[in-house]
Amino acid sequence: MMQFTHTAPPPPPLQPNGHGLGLGLYLDAGARRVAAQQGWAGSFIPSTSKISLGNLNSTGCMEQLLVHCANAIEANDATLTQQILWVLNNIAPADGDSNQRLTAAFLCALVSRASRTGACKAVTAAVAAAVEPAALHVHRFTAVELASFIDLTPWHRFGYTAANAAIVEAVEGFPVVHIVDLSTTHCMQIPTLIDMLASRAEGPPILRLTVADVAPSAPPPALDMSYEELGAKLINFARSRNMSMDIRVVPTSPADAFTSLVNQLRVQQLVSDGGEALVVNCHMILHTVPDETAGSVSLAQPPFSLRTMLLKSLRTLDPTLVVVVDEDADFTASDVVGRLRAAFNFLWIPYDAVDTFLPKGSEQRRWYEAEVGWKVENVLAQEGVERVERQEDRARWGQRMRGAGFRELVLGEEAAGEVKAMLNEHAAGWGMKREDDDLVLTWKGHNVVFTSAWVPS
Amino acid sequence: MPTNPTEAEAEAEAGQGQVAPAPAPVKKKRNPPGTPDPDAEVIALSPGTLMATNRFVCEVCGKGFQRDQNLQLHRRGHNLPWRLRQRGPGAAPPRRRVYVCPESTCVHHSPARALGDLTGIKKHFCRKHGEKRWACPRCGKRYAVQADLKAHAKTCGTREYRCDCGTLFTRKDSFVTHRAFCGALVEETGRVLAVPPPPSPRPPDLEADENVDKDNEMEKEQDDNEASPLAEADEPQQGQEVVEEPPPPPPPQCPPSPPPPPPKEQHHPVLANVDEQDMVAVAEPAVATKQEEEDEQDEDVCFQEADGFQDAGAGLEDSKLLDNDTPMLPCFLPSPSEAIGADGSSTGCGTSSSISGSIVPATTTTTSTFAGLFASVTTSSTPQSRSLRDLIGVDPTFLCLAIGAPSSLFPQPNASDPCSFAPPPAPHMSATALLQKAAEVGASQSSSSFLKEFGLNTSTSSAPSSKLSQARFTGNNTPPSQLPQARFVDNTPPAKLPHRMFTQNSAQQQWRHRSSQQMEMEPGPMLPGGLGLGLTYDSGNPGLPDLLTGPSSSLYGPKPATLDFLGLGIGGTMAGSTANGGLPALMVGRELDMGPAPAPAPWEETTRTTTNGRRRTIL
Prior knowledge:
The complex is a heterodimer of chains A (about 450) and B (about 625).
Chain A: H1 29-37, H2 53-56, H3 59-74, H4 78-91, H5 98-117, H6 121-136, E1 140-141, H7 143-150, H8 154-170, E2 176-183, H9 190-198, E3 206-213, E4 222-223, H10 227-240, E5 245-251, H11 259-271, E6 276-283, H12 306-316, E7 321-327, H13 336-355, H14 363-381, H15 394-403, E8 406-409, H16 413-424, E9 430-435, E10 438-443, E11 446-456
Helix pairs in contact in A: 3-4, 3-5, 3-13, 4-5, 5-13, 5-14, 8-9, 8-16, 13-14
Chain B: H1 6-18, H2 23-28, E1 41-44, H3 47-51, E2 56-57, E3 64-65, H4 68-77, E4 97-100, H5 118-129, E5 134-135, E6 142-143, H6 146-155, E7 161-162, E8 168-169, H7 172-181, H8 183-194, H9 207-221, H10 228-232, H11 235-244, H12 261-271, H13 273-283, H14 285-315, H15 320-325, H16 342-358, H17 360-373, H18 375-379, H19 386-392, H20 396-400, H21 413-416, H22 431-453, H23 462-475, H24 484-491, H25 504-521, H26 523-529, H27 535-540, H28 544-547, H29 551-555, H30 570-580, H31 588-594, H32 602-611, H33 613-618
Parallel strand pairs in B: 1-4
Antiparallel strand pairs in B: 2-3, 5-6, 7-8
Helix pairs in contact in B: 8-13, 13-14, 14-16, 16-23, 22-23, 22-25, 23-25, 25-30, 25-32, 30-32
Family (chain A): Belongs to the GRAS family.
Pfam families (chain A): GRAS
Protein name (chain A): Scarecrow-like protein 32
């Protein structure tokens, strides 16, 4: 590709008409090392190829640059980092096309990482000053706002629809339905579930809802409302559907595998009469439970992660149904470059999708992209328990569930049909396919989110 | 390009010569998509041809036709030689033609899945691989083929759900979710509680029923529910609305992205904001009105800003750049969090433009250089060509690194006075913003001394300077291409970025001066490698952490070369490095815009600059 040498030929001549002439960009990891050792006394020179501006904008190139940048940061190579950041900064404006936006988000995350790993006190102080407001600036949705925000894409709605269909089918005949909603989306799934349960043939059941309140460490979206208020609204809504409902909010945390929640469920189970269907609905939250790579956690014995522990303890509750909805990606690589690649090759999807229907200046789009940006930042810049975006792919979750003593249910035609109908209302790029027994949401053929249903085996 | 061998054709012809009538009815039957008659002639048309509206143009009058035969008929009118294909009784009936999609990844690219008619392939190509230019003004759904939009418009809104708050939904699940959390429900059930509960769950499809119920109640409570007029509209009326209102097909060229102020402003709220507002209105009327006011104010700000900006732009006749920028302005405005006082922001805008006015000569030089290189880029700051810009992926601001930035150098007195900055837009505190914060920490400590050191512009004394930069910062949200950092401001995810590299704004004024002064002050490290990228810095301090050091420590300290990282001081630095032959390849792009300007040796330049601070930074 290119090399750094110490002979310093004059810079390439100016080509006033050069449509093919690009920003000369010559980066190579191998050469970089050499050059860095030699202290960058000379300049580096175009040797063989140039990446034209056109190519520079390609995703492949951007990914390469980001990888180089991450490597440079890991190697503590200030100069190279600076240079690549400069280039990236120029080719990836945060208001550019979807790829540029994606890259800009990664760029921010890398800068954030660089500042985090930096040892300099002054920086740390400055960071601390800057970070706090940043956290405050995550948009806090009102419930109504969040409802319409969630509906922008099928990202969440896909899981809701498929899960609801599976739940309604599983709890058929039960007079009391107990839903444990483990979710990062603040009960946005529940109204449609209430609606479906309320209109089931044998009449509405009594609905018990247990909500995990993971407030302090919750990933976005953030809700501008307490769960008590939210619960009141849900109860009110259920009442309007002629269904009685109660709600219990349990403060808990994925960092300790929802121990307090599971314990409380266990106690309740002791007193329940058995006529109750227990459904654990895990919507995009299981990946926030520390996995094996999350480092030492005192709670878990070495061979087991908290993630395994949680699934096993869910199994002991003997639930009627466990629904697992999560993103079909793997962000568990221990090295940042691996995660960068994985995230880059997955998180282009929201940018690409949102580009099809929301205008660039739109507020919702900003929220949407800010949320993705949060995710990127978490994946790249955070380590240890701070890093909660630890997605695993569908197959891995299947293994885990089976390992914990669950058997997979086939999501029925009903679920598939509802999902298809829902997807018809969205952009043409969304699709659905079956993989094994799961339903998988796709964007332009790429897996996005999977839904799988499990029962104790 | 027929892919079928000619022998197939001959065969077909031979066969048809004998039994002409027999295959005819078969041919009438339309093949299902993607399973062409194996004997058919496969035609592959280029995307250009497929998208062309008039492929056949009369050479006399220039009139275009979609079909050759129509052109031939037309030529007959000109008394030109014409040629109509005639199907005599003995002639072979035309062979069936099938068309493949030019998109190589498409299933219909393979001749085996070719589509049976030309219109079909055109529409397919448009729908699947074309831009969806036609948006439904009602629900926002987009279509690539205008006919699809028309078809959609007939049904759009007929099957929809309406909340009592006035919000419309096309999907039941959206409606149900909204309904659960909407304040309107609270009212309803509050009343319901007094009355016996509804006998059965209301079938949500029958919204009309509900609306009727609701209407009665609404009449009583109309005073506090601004949505009630809407809610009162009964279904048929609504249907009429659809028919009457039907949106003139959106201007084809209108890009969705940068909404030009007035029309979009209307369109937008209808989809999103108004809804929320209405909902709030139901719950808490007081808040709603407040919001309304805010919104209005927002709009005012919008227009005022636009006006101000345009005025300013008009003032500077030769500031091409600014003029280009102007149309883009609105798209950065709508953030409600920037509901700054109208005067504040408009002055901010006006100021920045007038500031850049002062640097016009240099600016134009730069742009014109680039004009050749990136003609499209330069134009791309106008909304029309914005998509173009996306296409080529070059951001105009790229060019502006050297252009916009200097404008902050010499703050006009009024630039700082209203301190027209609002807290940065909430959800995406940008990298720059964060960095700036970081920089501020240091700047407040050291900038004054630094400025003194270089005898700079007294108006940027320490405290104002940090403030000022911030003011610019938010002000600059609006004229995006003016400043490279503006784009950072706008929507970078909320990362925590204390990185100074991007803090162009915060300390850029200083940096700029600094970097050119640098040549003088520290010839040692600069000269050998002399790179604006701060290479010299590295030689001293290889550690990354140092790179990230806040301005307090190294920024104004002994190794300011780093400051030039973003090429802010390029004028000087680049010239210098060129002279030294030590141009970092990374900087090539940068160098381009320096090209036309005479590249003085850094020493010359700095001496000149000390006398005239303004010019220096741009050269």
